[in-house]
Structures are given as structure tokens and as C-alpha cells.
Write a structure and sequence with these properties.
Elements (H helix, E strand, L loop, with lengths): L3 E10 L2 E11 L4 E5 L6 H9 L6 E6 L2 E2 L10 E4 L11 H11 L4 H15 L14 H13 L5 E5 L7 H18 L2 E5 L3 H7 L2 E6 L2 E6 L1 H6 L4 H6 L6 E10 L2 E6 L2 E4 L2 H9 L8 E8 L4 E5 L10 E11 L4 E7 L2 E7 L10 E6 L4 E5 L8
Parallel strand pairs: 3-8, 3-9, 6-7, 7-8
Antiparallel strand pairs: 1-2, 1-4, 4-5, 9-10, 11-12, 11-14, 12-13, 14-20, 15-19, 16-17, 16-19, 17-18
Helix pairs in contact: 2-3, 2-4, 3-4
The structure holds adenosine-5'-triphosphate (ATP).
The site of adenosine-5'-triphosphate has 11 residues, from strand 2 and helix 1.
Length: 373
């Protein structure tokens, strides 16, 4: 078994708490993506699992074994870094074989494993080249190959694609997904890139200031973010927030804020209702969250005024991206980002009627910023 288990893991560098009581179970064969802003502790967490840093408190398990005191080379993990760290004077073949030779693996076995990995990664014709004679993408594939030939229990990858240009990144991302499907090796993958996180991860773990914020499938993180931080971090452009109150008026649960006043429906009304006392008059300060893709825009009639179900907004900045257009608007006190159909041909200054998709609204407590769900 190659599950990885972190139990209350803390890492301090002097007074800096880089990782703060993180507990996390990564299943055998799972692809877990670690995301978070710069300095949140992603690389440190990976280095703790690899054994390149010592844990200050807590336990790291690989399989059934606590590995806190096991040196990196005996943990049976392979790490892939963003700077490929290839040996420049060695051929691709020798770069891939090096780790196995150090481990005194028999020659035939090394040859078999290197050729198999080269085949998997499309490197067979490049085995005699040196790193200087390779493109960035090919070098990164050699770095992956070096990890694969070891057939480790766990892959640890620290932004492995971040030195590649946009097109190669996309290509390598697909290759990584295919590789994981084929090998099924437990993988922990650090990235800044949302698309990588959403497309590669069986689950995503979001870190902030060394603390775990939420661990869930990409769909769940997107649809049910645990707090304002996760809601803003996952999704591009980020979720919009409208500050306001929820209150019960004539038995209805309503939101009012940023020029919007609307009745909440379905699950959201139940959630909001549950945190209000049963009588009229009680209110709670909240942030209403809505993603740019869950706001529907149409041209506003000349005399349009905000209504029960819509906002009237003015387009400030228009960003056409081809398949979709993002429009930055002001609507009363609120500034919002809206995804619109490019065929609407919105121009700065245009007035838009915006309808929020009632099925896809989020409510967060204004003070704690935690989801009310
Ligand atoms: P980035 O995305 O920028 O690579 P990260 O999320 O990987 O950031 P870490 O490199 O894990 O962040 O750093 C977490 C915190 O620990 C930071 O505040 C960093 O300054 C600090 N830190 C990391 N390594 C050391 C070290 N060797 N000595 C002291 N502080 C460190």
C-alpha cells in the first residue's frame, strides 16, 4: 500500500510556522493537488513527505510506516522539481539510469526499465542525446523518466511544468494525466495553476498560511467552497462577492445588498433560514457569492431599473477571449465580473440587465468568512 497520511504535521522555521497542524489522508493511487498562494507552505509540505525537511511536530506515514526518522533515500518516493536538475554531461539514457545504478540494480534490469520509461514518454529516439540538445518539454520528460524508472511508491511533484511555455504545459499536462492513469502511482502535486489543479487532481487541497482550508474533489471545491478564501482562489476570474444581509420578511428569506434585493430559493433559503431566528426582523451580515459564469447579462432597456430578480449595471472594461467575454461592471455599490456571450458585443459604457442564477449562489458569514452551508 502506498497511501500517505499526515497527522497533525507542523513545521516551524524559527518563528515562521510554514505548515500548521495539517492532517491529510492521501489514498493509494490518488492524485492529490496542493494549491495555495506563494509562501503558504506547499513546497515545505512536499519536502516533509520527501524527508528533505524534518517535521517539527506530528507524524508522516507512507503506507503503514511512520517515516519521520527515515532518510529520504529509504522512503521510496521520487521527487520531480520545476528545474529538472539533469546531469548535463550525461546522455538521456544515463540520466535515467543513474539512480538505479547507485542502487546497484542489475544492468539488464536497468536497461529494461529505462527503455520502458523512454517508450512511455516518447523519448526512445533521444536516449543518446545530452540535456543541452533537448527542448524544455523533452528535458522535463527526462526528469519524469528518471522518477518513473525507480517505480516508487509515491511521486512528489513541485510545479513540474512551470518552466514550460503555455502550449507545452497543456501538452505535458495531458501526458501527466495519461501517465497517472497508466501507472496508478500515488501522486502529490504542487501547482499555482488552477487548470492543472482542476484537471489533474482526484482531490485538491487548498492551503493558506500553512493551514489546510479545504480538501475535496475539483467539482466540490468549485461548487461548495468552504470559505471566502477558497471561493476566491479557485475559479478564474474569481467569484464575485456582494456584501449585505439576509433577513426574514413576511416569512420569506431575503438577501439585500449592493443594490440587489431578492428572495432566496431552495437549498440556499433553507441554509440562510436556519441561521436566522424564526420570527421576522432578525438579520445576519453576509457575503453573497456568485461566479462570473452564473450571472446572465442582456442589454438593458433604456428605462430599466433594478428589480426583484435583476441588477442594472454599466460595463466598464470588456475582455474578449474568443469563446467567451468577461465584462467588468458596476451595479450600484457593487463591482462585478460577468461572463457574457461574445455575440452580445458589449462595449464599455453599455448598460446591462444582470440576472443571478439562483441555483448557484453562495452565502458566507461576513465576519468569519465561512460558508453558511
Ligand atoms: P511558493 O509557491 O512561492 O513556492 P510555497 O507555498 O511553496 O511558496 P514554502 O516554500 O513552503 O511556500 O514556504 C512556506 C513558508 O516557510 C514561507 O513563509 C517561507 O518563507 C518559509 N520557509 C520556507 N523554507 C524556509 C527555510 N529553509 N528557512 C526559513 N523559512 C523558510
Amino acid at each position: 500500500m502506498a497511501e500517505v497520511r499526515l497527522v497533525d504535521v507542523t513545521k516551524r522555521f524559527g518563528s515562521t510556522v510554514a505548515v500548521d497542524r495539517v492532517s491529510l489522508d492521501i489514498a493509494d493511487g490518488e492524485f492529490l493537488v496542493l494549491v495555495g498562494p506563494s509562501g503558504c507552505g506547499k513546497s515545505t509540505l512536499l519536502r516533509l513527505i520527501a524527508g528533505l525537511e524534518d517535521v517539527t511536530e506530528g507524524q508522516v506515514y507512507i503506507g503503514d510506516r511512520v517515516v519521520n526518522d527515515v532518510p529520504p533515500k529509504d522512503r521510496d518516493v521520487a521527487m520531480v522539481f520545476q528545474n529538472y536538475a539533469l546531469y548535463p554531461h550525461m546522455t538521456v539514457y544515463d540520466n535515467m539510469a543513474f539512480g538505479l545504478r547507485m542502487r546497484k540494480v542489475p544492468r539488464d534490469e536497468i536497461d529494461r526499465r529505462v527503455r520502458q520509461a523512454a517508450e512511455t514518454l516518447g523519448l526512445t529516439n533521444l536516449l543518446k542525446r545530452r540535456p543541452a540538445q533537448l527542448s524544455g518539454g523533452q528535458r522535463q520528460r527526462v526528469a519524469l523518466g528518471r522518477a518513473i524508472v525507480r517505480d516508487p511508491k509515491v511521486f512528489l511533484m513541485d510545479e513540474p511544468l512551470s518552466n514550460l511555455d503555455a502550449q507545452l504545459r497543456v501538452q505535458m499536462r495531458t501526458e501527466l494525466a495519461r501517465l497517472h492513469q497508466r501507472l496508478g502511482t500515488t501522486t502529490i502535486y504542487v501547482t499555482h495553476d488552477q487548470v492543472e489543479a482542476m484537471t489533474l487532481g482526484d482531490r485538491i487541497a487548498v492551503l493558506r498560511d500553512g493551514k489546510l482550508q479545504q480538501v475535496a474533489t475539483p467539482q466540490d471545491i468549485y461548487a461548495r467552497p468552504a470559505n471566502v478564501f477558497v471561493a476566491s482562489f479557485i475559479g478564474s476570474p474569481p467569484m464575485n462577492f456582494i456584501r449585505g444581509v439576509v433577513e426574514r420578511i413576511d416569512g420569506e428569506v431575503r438577501f439585500a445588498g449592493g443594490g440587489l434585493s431578492c428572495r432566496l430559493k431552495g437549498e440556499l433559503a433553507e441554509t440562510a433560514g436556519a441561521c436566522l431566528s424564526s420570527g421576522d426582523g432578525h438579520r445576519r451580515e453576509v457575503l453573497l457569492g456568485v461566479r462570473p459564469e452564473h450571472i446572465h447579462a442582456r442589454p438593458a432597456e433604456g428605462s430599466a431599473v433594478p428589480g426583484e430578480t435583476h441588477l442594472v449595471a454599466t460595463a466598464e472594461v470588456v475582455e474578449p477571449l474568443g469563446a467567451e467575454t468577461f465584462v467588468y461592471v458596476t451595479a450600484g455599490a457593487a463591482s462585478l465580473t460577468v461572463r457574457v456571450d461574445p455575440r452580445l458585443a458589449v462595449r464599455p459604457g453599455d448598460r446591462l440587465a444582470l440576472t443571478l442564477d439562483a441555483e448557484h449562489l453562495h452565502l458566507f458569514d461576513a465576519a468569519t468568512e465561512q460558508s453558511l452551508r
